[in-house]
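REQUEST ID: PR-0412
SUBMITTED BY: lab tech R.K.
PRIORITY: routine
TASK: structure prediction, single protein chain
INPUT:
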Amino acid sequence: MATTDDLSDGKPDQRWLWLVWSLLFAAAAFFEFRRLYSSFETPVGPMAWLLFWDPETTLPFFCLLSLPLLRWVSDERVSALRRVDFRIRRADRDTGDPQVVNRAQNGSCIAACCLIFLLSVLSSYAVGTKSVRITTILDRRDIAFADLPPAYHDEYSYLLQAQTFLAGRMTFPPMTIRPDLFHQMHVLNERRTVSRYFPMTGVWMAPFVAFGRPIWGHWLAGGLASVFFYLAMRQIVHPRAACVGGVLIAISPGLAVFSNLLLAHHPVMLALSVFTWSFLRMMSTSGFCYAVLSGTALSCAMLGRPMTAAGFAMPFGLWLAVGLVRERTSRVLAVGVALPIVAGLTVLATFNYEATGSWNRTAYQEYTDTFTPRHRYGFNNGAARFTDDRSKVLASYDKWATNLTPAVAAENVRNRFVASLQWSLAVFPLLFGLGMTVPLCRSQATPLNRATVANPTGLRLLFASVLTLHLVHVPYWFDGIMHWHYVFETAPLLLLLAGVGLYAAAVQLGDFLPRKIAVGWVVSLVAVGLLPGWIAIPVFDGQSKVSGAVHEIAFARTRFEYFNATVESSAIDKPALILIHERDSDPQLSYVINAPDLGGTVLKCRHPKSREEVLDLQAAFPGRSIYTFSPATQLFRRWQNPSAAE
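STATUS: complete
OUTPUT:
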C-alpha cells in the first residue's frame, strides 16, 4: 500500500495528464479550425461552423478547452491533507479478491453487476425497438427494428444452423434437384446442407430460436459479457475503475447495434469475457478450476470465431508459455487450460467430418474454395486458386472482393481502428481514457499506479490483446461490416482500459479542482462522446450514429419483410415454388432462403435461364404453384406455361 509521503507527490501523474490533454486538444483544434476554414466557402459563411457540428470533434473540442479554464477560474483548492486522505481510502479499498473483500464490497459488486447488466439489456432494447416504416402487400405500418427479418445472409446462415441443431442434427441431406438454383448464401448444399460457419453460435441461438425470439439471446449475451468483463477488471484495478469500464461497455452504441444482429459476435464476446475473467482469476489465485474454465471459455470462442479467439487470447497464451519456461506457472494450470481446447478441437473435427467428409477441412474453407475463392485469407487474394469446378463460383459476389495489397491492408487497419473508436464510444474521449491508462501499465512506478492498479500485467495483456486482434486480421481484404466487425471484440477491451484511465484522470484532476467538478468534467467528456451516438439532434444532421446504422441496415430488412409478408399472405397459393430473378441483382440481397430440411410450404430458388428448365422444375415439384419474383421491381407474378395457354 502507498504511504502518505508517496501519495503527496502527484506531479509526475499530472504532467502526463497535461501531455495527453495537449495532444488531444491540438488534434481536436486542428479538425475544428479546418472545418471553420471550409465554412467560409459556404453560402452562410462561418455560421455553418456553428450550425453543423462534427459528431467526433466539435463537442470534445469544447470540453477539452474547458479544462484549463476550469483550473484558472476555480477559487477552491483541494488541500494536500484531503487529497492524501482520498487516495488512502481508495487504496485501502482496492482489492479484487473475493476472499478478502468485506461484506460491503461484495454488496457493491453485486449492485454493480445488476446495474451493468440492466444498462446493457436496455441499450440493446433501445436499438431493437426503434421504429421502421414498412409498406407491404397488406398495409403500411411501423415495425420495431428487432422484429424485422435479418439483413445479412450470415444471419440467415446462423439461423439455419440453429434450426439444424434444434432438429437434433449436425447437417441435413442436400438438395438433389438443381442444387445450383437452390444455393443459399453462406450455406453448403452439395454434399450436405450445412452452414459454412462454426457451430458455437448456432448452439447459443438454438433455445431462443425455439422460443421464437432469437434476438433475446444476443441481448442476454451482451448483458452477461458486460458483467464478466467488469468482474475481470476487478481482479486488476480499483473496483470503481472497473465499474466505469463495465458501464461504458453496457451503454456503447456500437455494441448495442451489433446486439441486434444475429451474428457470431455477441456469443463469442460472452465466451471471451468469461475467458478473461477466469484467466485473470487463475493468475491471482493459481486455482485449477479457473484454468479449466478459462480453457473451456476459449474453446467455445474458438468454435464461434477461431481467428478472433486466437488473436484475442494470444498475449495470454504467451504469458502462460513464458511462465512455464521460467517456472513461474504451474504445469497443472497449463494442462487445465489446454485440455478443454483439445476437447474443442475434437468437437470441431467431428463437425468437419459430418459437413465436408474430412476431419481437418472446415465447412468455412470448403465454401470459400468452392464458391468464393477471392474471399480467402492472405495477400494477393485476387489471384484466386480454383480448387473445384470454376462454374460453381458465385461470380458476382466473388468479384466484390478487393485484391489485398500492403496499401489496402494499411487502409483497412486504419479504418478498423478509427471505426472501433467511433463505435465503441467516440474518438477523443476514448483516446483520452486510453492515454491516461498507459502509464498505469508500469509496475507501480507512481503513487497513482499503486493506488489504482493491483496487477499492471493484466492491463498490459489487455492492451496486447487489442493489438494482436488487429494484427491477425491484417491479411484479409475486407475491413468489415461498419468497417470494424473483424475487430469487434476489441471494443470491450478498449472501453475497459479507457475506464481505468478516466477514473485515474478524475483522481488527478482532484489535485487542483474541487472533487465534484473533477468528476463532472470526466463525466462530461464521456457524455459528449455518447451524445452523437445515441441522440439525434439538428446540429448533427438530425441523426445519431445508432439511428444512422438502423436506417442503413433497415434497407435490406424492409425488403425481406415485404417479400416474406407477400409469400405468407393469401396472394400466394401454397404450396408454392418461387423463382427469383437474381442474375442482375445484388448478390448480398439474395432471397433464396429455405429451411434446412427444404420442406417448407414455400420453396425459393433462382429463376432458371430457359422455359424448359422451368418445366423440369414443375415436374420435379408437382402440386406446387410456381411464381416469379423480381428483386428490382419487387413484383410477384404467377408463372404460366405458354404452351399450355395455347
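NOTES: The chain has three domains: 4-100+413-534, 149-404, 572-645.
REVIEWED BY: pending
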